[in-house]
Design goal:
Two copies of one chain form a homodimer.
Chain A: E1 13-19, E2 25-31, H1 33-42, E3 46-49, E4 54-57, E5 66-73, E6 80-86, E7 102-105, E8 108-111, H2 119-123
Parallel strand pairs in A: 1-6
Antiparallel strand pairs in A: 1-2, 3-4, 5-6, 7-8
């Protein structure tokens, strides 16, 4: 049986986060072995922050954690798909439900959908 | 308005492919600027193959092309989400509908779903 291939991405694997009930794609994050292990132990999504270079528990500041409902691996073993319950209703740090809230329309990126929370209130900045 | 950030991934951006009608996640591929341009021009998904190091038109051998129905960019501009019509019904080169046909169950990866096509027949190998 195929195992997770952390080598191809030099220690990191892309992880697609999908809403378990609506199948909406909420975000894409990256995991290293440590954040994968933490995700398995806590049943909540943890990632590796490429910018901050540290483990990042999704929702640790906002409370908007992602409870793991299903874990899927692709044919090559180099991409994960997690189905989650998104606590708080929004995955994006900007307050939108999904990080993918920009749609290409006639050659321009248009923001659609509405903010579920105000980042200033949640993050205090 | 945010633009696609090809720099963060050293010229490559991960692209999530989702079925436009069912919202099933079918695969994840990578695009460079050239494959992105080609995708825009042809309205069919083209990727950069990291293993073969060349542009790859999805379905060029099998005929199972992906017609673009919607294009979404994430908040950081470093991940794309494409909603597609998957011609032939299967995105995975193994013949499964989705590349994510392995599910973690009691600590083991279990294959689920059924093959839509036989790779031997489609690829002749």
């Amino acid at each position: 049986m195929i195992k997770i291939d952390f080598k191809k991405g030099k220690g990191l694997i892309p992880v697609i986060i999908q809403d378990a009930s609506t199948n909406e794609v909420l975000m894409l994050g990256y995991m290293n072995r440590e954040s994968w292990k933490k995700t398995m132990e806590t049943k909540k999504a943890s990632f590796w922050s490429r910018s901050r270079k540290k483990i990042w528990v999704k929702g640790e500041t906002s409370g908007h954690v992602q409870k793991i409902k299903g874990i899927y691996l692709d044919c090559d073993g180099d991409t994960l798909l997690l189905k989650v319950d998104q606590i708080g209703g929004a995955a994006c740090h900007t307050g939108f439900r999904s990080c993918f809230h920009q749609r290409l329309e006639k050659g321009k990126w248009k923001v659609f959908g509405k903010r579920i929370f105000d980042p200033k209130e949640v993050y205090g900045k």
